[in-house]
Design brief:
Strand content: 15-25%
Number of helices: 9
Helix content: 10-25%
Radius of gyration: 23 Å
Order of helices and strands: HEHHEHEHEHEEEHEEHEHEEEEEEE
Structural class: alpha/beta
Strand order of the largest sheet: 1-2-3-4-5-6-9-10
């Protein structure tokens, strides 16, 4: 007798590529701002800095990789060229570069591959040093620069396009040929995630405060927009567009210190501050790109590395024990996809509801105390959920469980981490989902952040 297999739900709206899905599942990556500004104390150099200003005493990119791995980060993006135009590799398309004997980009990419961390690059199109900046010829130079980096140092998992566009040394501003730059990258490495104000791989989140908007959609309507001068408003980039035309998830860039480059008089954020950033970025459907700037020696400081490891340990502690394990899960409507799939940790399993409004009943194996709820949609089939409500059994009836602003949360997407107003004790939870299409739930978990 043939076995009946439930059909896969129909995809809804724009979908992530395999590369975008792999990128989102990285969750936390490292940003390394490093260059002449590290030595001058500036944040934006003016391009007149002498090449020999950049002299790291003991460059150790393997140490960066070790710190990233201990912090639970799978990728590192290096500012290979910031707005000052200084190249951290001996480029054939600039005279403002490191010497052949100090090829930082080579040391960086080699260390990443040896250490099992994925390398990416930031290459600013704004160049405050190059004499051709502000002319048509500069677009040729920038496209050739991209080709040089990605052929000689690739493959690279992400290309960061800063949208800044100011004056060059001749007082002119550049009209960037974005279609050409994007096509060049597509030809070089179609799997590379392209970051800009509008993607196409991922988008700027609209702020540098360590948070997405709420709601936060991975979909964005990009027709008629370009990076830089014709980008959507920051408030739009924070939330995305419900029903947007393209899949362009948000990347949340923020620095562990007040500035982006290392300065000796600045200090790192605390673990509590980093956890708040984590909840408001990864926990609201974003990827966290945490800047950790190397110092003048060319190493990540002991202060920063100590806090990063503690940040990783705190995440591991809080999310070590899923209190929903062992629960019995049922759905009011049968779809052929088992409701208990929301409890397993396999990524490509899920529960699919029948209608846009759906309910899931979770009976725990005993009364549990928790203050965090994690919900994940199965985004390979699209982002659908607009609102989630939670009710709990308090012994004398089922009552709504609230957070400060919502019955539980608005959008979910890849991952939503909800912190309840206070610890909650119950042995039964009822989730009610409202969505644009029948919700497809990959995971539901509950945790007690106060448990040791």
């Amino acid at each position: 007798m043939a076995c009946c297999v439930a059909p896969e739900p129909e995809p809804f709206g724009p979908l992530p590529t395999d590369a975008q899905l792999a990128w989102q599942r990285m969750e936390v990556n490292m940003f390394c701002h490093f260059g002449p500004n590290t030595f001058s104390g500036a944040e934006w150099g003016d391009g007149s800095e002498p090449d020999d200003l950049f002299r790291p005493r003991a460059l150790d990119c393997r140490q960066w990789v070790d710190v990233a791995r201990q912090a639970g980060m799978g990728g590192i993006i290096l500012t290979a060229k910031h707005h000052d135009g200084f190249c951290l590799w001996p480029s054939a398309f600039s005279t403002h570069t490191v010497a052949d004997t100090l090829d930082v980009l080579r040391a960086f990419t080699d260390a990443c591959r040896e250490g099992g961390v994925r390398p990416g690059v930031y290459i600013s199109p704004w160049d405050r040093n190059h004499p051709a900046y502000g002319t048509d010829a500069y677009n040729d130079i920038f496209a050739n620069t991209l080709r040089e980096v990605h052929t000689q140092y690739g493959p690279l998992f992400e290309q960061w396009f800063d949208g800044a566009c100011g004056e060059g040394p001749n007082g002119k501003r550049q009209r960037y040929d974005w279609p050409r730059f994007m096509q060049t990258m597509s030809d070089l490495n179609p799997q590379c995630i392209l970051f800009s104000d509008i993607g196409p791989g991922c988008r700027w989140v609209g702020n540098e405060e360590g948070r997405t908007g709420d709601p936060c959609w991975s979909t964005l309507t990009t027709e008629g927009a370009t990076p830089s001068e014709n980008k959507p408003e920051p408030s739009v980039l924070e939330t995305g567009h419900q029903g947007g035309s393209h899949w362009v998830p948000p990347e949340v860039d923020v620095s562990i210190r007040p500035g982006w480059f290392w300065h000796p008089d600045e200090h790192t954020k605390t673990v509590d501050e980093l956890m708040e950033i984590y909840y408001n970025s990864v926990g609201r459907n974003g990827l966290l790109l945490l800047n950790v700037p190397p110092d003048t020696a060319g190493r990540i400081s002991a202060e920063d590395s100590t806090v990063l490891v503690a940040f990783r340990n705190e995440r591991d502690r809080i999310f070590a024990h899923d209190l929903a394990q062992g629960a019995k899960v049922s759905a009011l409507s049968r779809s052929g996809h088992k409701a208990k799939s929301v409890l397993d940790t396999a990524y490509h399993t899920y529960w699919a509801a029948m209608g846009k409004n759906a309910e899931l009943d979770m009976k725990l194996d005993s009364i549990r105390e928790f203050d965090i709820v994690v919900i994940q949609e199965y985004i390979p089939l699209g982002q659908r959920i607009t609102n989630v409500q939670l009710s709990i059994d308090e012994g004398d009836g089922i009552y709504p469980c609230t957070t400060a602003d919502y019955p539980l949360c608005t959008t979910v997407g890849y991952k939503r981490i909800i912190r309840l107003d206070s610890p909650t004790r119950t042995d039964r939870l009822v989730f009610t989902f409202h969505a644009l299409a029948p919700p497809v739930i990959n995971r539901i978990a509950i945790y007690n952040s106060k448990a040791q």
